[in-house]
Amino acid sequence: MAAFAAATLAPVALIALGLAMGGLWLWAGLAYMALLSALLDQLLPLVESDASEGAEFPAADSLLVLLAFLALALPPLAILGATGTTLSPAEKIALIAATGLWLGQIAHPAAHELIHRPARRHVRLGIWVYAWMLIGHHASSHRLVHHRHVATPLDPATARRGTGFWRYLPRASIGAFRAGLAAETDLRRRKAQPGPHPYALYAGIAAAALALAALIGGWSGVLLWLILAAHAQIQIHLSDYVQHYGLTRATGPDGRPEPVNARHSWNTAHWFSSALLLNAPRHSDHHAHPARPYPALRLPDDAPRLPWPLPVACTLALIPPLWRRLMKPHLARLTTPPPTAT
């Protein structure tokens, strides 16, 4: 837990110091989010051992709650700094870039964990974080669509082999919105007292976020909030793209896909990015056990592994021809049958 807390909270401290003092603190925060995980994962490629079965982590949810409240506070503070007169133009760019990276790489995994927690208050807090980033529907599409249909054509978040990220992005964003809406609407039909539609809540929170941005910085504040939200959302879709790229579930004789197993998610074993991303790179185990606390997630021996840290893989995916060429041999190893014994 100390590693998770240190990795996720340190950049917030750097950004906060940058807001107050400017200068090197802001550039340090940006370098932390953009470069540090790639450097440390390569220099010290340590793999944290799996937690013992049934291990409990009382502080795990407390860290998630703290990160969620920081995710709600950081965008308005960043807009306040970026629309003020204290920071230079270059420092303002560094502030927005570092904040967007923190939202996409740390706030997103924290919200993702919260919407899978059994306590309703945690789920609601995760929804607030996503809706604050103007992607509240992810709380619906991820739980009701992605986990059910992953690695099949029915999942908008699963990228087909050969599909570049920029071609995948519209399908993933629009498709997830529509699929989540249909799933939530179907659930409401089955309830005697359905209550307000979740998508109305997502829209209300998003409207409140943009209204706050307007109060802070007028139209410039609204534009900056939209930039932060777009930055975070691209990273959310990048993680889905990379973690399921080219992996498919076989269809059985009854026409149904095989059960989800470890072979349907890409994983990485790099230590620092795992701490930074709250063990999101241990993705196969999350799909097998969605309610398992993030410190207890495991690396199955039969799960596909990427040779790069997840943030590096996401960066490579931004260049589709390079990504396809680099991934081709890894996909080939998964689909090549083992040699027949003689």
Automatic annotation (TrEMBL):
The chain crosses the membrane at residues 59-81, 199-228. The keyword Membrane applies. CDD domains: Alkane-hydroxylase. It is found in: Cell inner membrane. Keywords: Cell inner membrane, Cell membrane, Iron, Membrane, Metal-binding, Monooxygenase, Oxidoreductase, Transmembrane, Transmembrane helix. Residues 95-298 form the Fatty acid desaturase domain. Its main location: membrane. InterPro entries: AlkB/XylM (IPR033885), FA_desaturase_dom (IPR005804). It is a multi-pass membrane protein. Belongs to the fatty acid desaturase type 1 family. AlkB subfamily. This is Alkane 1-monooxygenase.
